[in-house]
């Protein structure tokens, strides 16, 4: 008993040797590098395909392979941290992620790039969960919300800056530099983490778990198949493809089998007891919804700008950038708000603002200007400041300290997996809704509809005034009207996607009140 009491006293009195804020910045630098890499590659895929003599469809496997490995490791990173020691595992992940980035930049074939990206995703998967668990152990509960404000820079700002930076690099230099960019950042991160971070006593004394081969296999199968299905579904025509049907079946069996096994295993690879904490479970669901909206909108807006408005990759990325600045400015203000208002009310306000911003964003038009697009995206991103930090804070509020590792792994997994689902569903819905709107609008494109005939006549008159030959004028006019008609259908499809995202955001508002009432507000703990 005396030994246990001494251990408990040592745990309670432990404080990090170095300034906690330096530690937070060091671990966030590593996570920022990894999150940035998930989105920065998207805009470079056409350049990669051309450089490596492959099709655009084949080049997307460079993205798919990363997401598959990343999604699997996110879930089991708590177990890997226990197995190797958290700090050692974190440093290994940063170092190998940097090495793999260099290898990706030197790839001479698509096969090499896919293999290197698979390895990069494997080591990158351990960065986000370990960042969060280190912050949880470094800061007392009273200061965690401010610390998660620093972590939000990696999780929220990196996906916003990724397309901008990737577009600029590929337009001005070469796609290989999006990987070489990680090398100096990774070296600095390894040095800082090695010097500043230390494992607390309860991490050092934690009993190591054995290897749960069944749990590991089922999680690998389920999440790997799910990521492949989500990323390749649109290219393979979804469930019209036997390959996607097989992936869906394997994902269902793997995830269902993993849940069943983890509930009965004596030493599970991921401890499911974390979901008995109401705040953590609700936090995972809410961060999943936030991740889906964040990643979907981060893909949809540049896609709309490039494919519909013919923006360059750089200008499409610049649409997103002011939103990142808005988040950085608002996060400290939200931290202050959480000291005077219950956290669940702050989260509800965030989802309400997000829903209103998405409704506003649904007012797209074919002639929309750059400033309006920036305003739409900035309003969306501003709402994220009211969501990420409060949700992260409340999710771990009542979670036992010894479960922080598994909790951080599952929390990051929910965000990333639902982010992938959000991207896949939004891109699929754009195509599907475009077809629906084309079908609806086609009833008005008839010789018996007077406004249609008047529009054709206007185009013909303009073409004749430009000196076009009389015989071809009608056909050219019909072709231009058809292009305008397709453009209208596409714009309406993008508007529908924003409406659906708004519905998800509004649906989450009442869900916030499932959180414990004792989630912040009033004076911060320890204040007098």
Short synopsis of the structure:
The chain is mostly helical and 528 residues long. It has 22 helices and no strands. It is 77% helix and 0% strand.
pLDDT under 50 segments (min length 5)? 522-528
Order of helices and strands: HHHHHHHHHHHHHHHHHHHHHH
The assigned structural class equals mainly alpha
Tell me the number of strands: 0
Please work out how many helical segments DSSP would assign: 22
Q: Please state the overall shape, judged from the principal axes of the Cα atoms.
A: globular
What would the average pLDDT be, to the nearest integer? 83
Give a short account of the largest sheet: none
Radius of gyration: 25 Å
Q: How much helix, percentage-wise, in residues? A: over 70%
Q: How much of the sequence is in beta strands?
A: under 5%
How far the N terminus sits from the C terminus, by CA atoms, comes to 35 Å
Verbal overview:
48% of the residues are buried. Helix 2 runs antiparallel to helix 11 (182-196), helix 6 (86-106) runs antiparallel to helix 11 (182-196) and helix 8 (127-138) crosses helix 20 (404-442). Helices cover 77% and strands 0% of the residues. The chain starts with a helix and ends in a 17-residue tail after the last helix. Residues 522-528 have low confidence and may be disordered. The protein has helices spanning 2-13, 20-40, 45-51, 56-59, 61-84, 86-106, 110-124, 127-138, 144-172, 177-180, 182-196, 201-204, 213-232, 242-264, 278-308, 313-337, 343-361, 370-385, 388-395, 404-442, 450-465, 470-511. It has 528 residues and is mostly helical.
């Amino acid at each position: 008993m005396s030994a246990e009491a001494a251990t408990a006293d040592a745990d309670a009195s432990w404080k990090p040797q170095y300034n906690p804020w330096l530690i937070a910045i060091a671990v966030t630098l590593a996570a920022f590098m990894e999150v940035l890499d998930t989105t920065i590659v998207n805009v470079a895929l056409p350049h990669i395909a051309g450089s490596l003599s492959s099709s655009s469809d084949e080049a997307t496997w460079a993205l798919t392979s990363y997401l598959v490995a990343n999604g699997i490791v996110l879930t089991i990173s708590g177990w890997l941290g226990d197995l190797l020691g958290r700090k050692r595992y974190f440093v290994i992940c940063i170092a190998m992620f940097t090495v793999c980035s260099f290898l990706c930049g030197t790839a001479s074939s698509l096969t090499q790039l896919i293999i290197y990206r698979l390895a990069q995703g494997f080591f990158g998967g351990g960065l986000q969960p370990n960042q969060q668990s280190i912050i949880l152990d470094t800061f007392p509960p009273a200061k965690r919300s401010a610390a998660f404000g620093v972590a939000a820079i990696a999780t929220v700002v990196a996906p916003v800056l990724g397309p901008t930076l990737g577009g600029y690099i590929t337009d001005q230099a070469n796609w290989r530099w999006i990987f070489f960019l990680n090398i100096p950042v990774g070296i600095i991160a390894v040095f800082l983490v090695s010097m500043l971070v230390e494992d607390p006593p309860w991490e050092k004394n934690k009993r190591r778990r054995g290897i749960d081969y069944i749990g590991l296999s089922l999680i690998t199968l389920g999440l790997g198949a799910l990521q492949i299905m989500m990323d390749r579904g649109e290219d393979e025509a979804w469930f019209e493809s036997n390959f996607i049907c097989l992936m869906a079946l394997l994902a269902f069996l793997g995830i269902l089998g993993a849940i069943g096994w983890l509930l009965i295993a004596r030493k599970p690879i991921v401890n499911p007891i974390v979901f008995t904490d109401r705040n953590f479970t609700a936090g995972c669901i809410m961060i999943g919804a936030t991740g889906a909206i964040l990643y979907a909108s981060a893909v949809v807006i540049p896609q709309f700008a490039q494919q519909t408005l013919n923006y360059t990759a750089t200008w499409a990325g610049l649409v997103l950038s002011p939103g990142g600045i808005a988040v950085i400015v608002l996060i400290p203000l939200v931290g202050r708000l959480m000291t005077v208002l219950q956290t669940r009310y702050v989260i509800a306000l965030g989802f309400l603002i997000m829903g209103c911003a998405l409704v506003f964003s649904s007012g797209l038009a074919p002639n929309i200007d750059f400033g309006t697009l920036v305003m739409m995206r900035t309003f969306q991103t501003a709402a994220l400041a009211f969501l990420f930090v409060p949700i992260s804070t409340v999710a771990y509020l009542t979670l036992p300290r010894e479960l922080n590792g598994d909790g951080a792994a599952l929390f990051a997994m929910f965000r990333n997996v639902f982010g992938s689902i959000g991207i896949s569903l939004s891109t699929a819905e754009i195509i599907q809704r475009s077809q629906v709107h084309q079908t609806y609008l086609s009833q008005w494109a008839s010789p018996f509809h007077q406004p249609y005939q008047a529009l054709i006549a206007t185009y013909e008159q303009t073409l004749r005034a430009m000196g076009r030959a009389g015989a071809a004028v009608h056909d050219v006019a019909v072709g231009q009207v058809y292009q305008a008609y397709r453009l209208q259908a596409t714009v309406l499809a993008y508007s529908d996607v924003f409406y659906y995202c708004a519905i998800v955001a509004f649906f989450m508002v009442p869900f916030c009140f499932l959180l414990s009432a004792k989630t912040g507000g009033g004076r911060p703990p320890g204040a007098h």
